[in-house]
């Protein structure tokens, strides 16, 4: 059980995220070896108001999402070398974990809790009306926590991706979105 007021008390982990050195090989591993899929890719993402360590950045990335039961798997491919948590000191992690993600209803409260615990906000921005921050509580790569307040007014993208994985027959392992 998470201690009240601590980062873990903000929500359960709903996602494991990776920034593989070889994106295509990672998709092949997850779909062919692990049997997780299909992955849905969104290309050319740039968060509105995106900041890295408080400074604006023009970082662009692709991400692919699939579900392993109730757990979302995210594969990220940076498109450039602009400062972000996907390049530099936080960049490709080989096959290791890059970050976990939790969903919250109040991102401002989550940010307050993180700051109280000394976690540095590394990335912040919005995607549509969803808001996200990535915090580093002091452990470096593999220990970043993405905190996401999902849009309430859009389609249930995560639900659609999860439903596509139920009974998936291995066809079309990587499907384009957006």
Automatic annotation (TrEMBL):
Coiled coil: none annotated. One of its GO terms (biological process) is L-methylmalonyl-CoA metabolic process. It comes from Erythrobacter ramosus. The lineage of its organism: Bacteria, Pseudomonadati, Pseudomonadota, Alphaproteobacteria, Sphingomonadales. Keywords: Metal-binding. Pfam families: Glyoxalase_4. InterPro entries: Glyas_Bleomycin-R_OHBP_Dase, Glyoxalase_1_CS, MMCE/EMCE_epimerase, VOC_core. This is Catechol 2,3-dioxygenase-like lactoylglutathione lyase family enzyme. Residues 12-150 form the VOC domain. Transmembrane segments: none annotated. One of its GO terms (molecular function) is lactoylglutathione lyase activity.
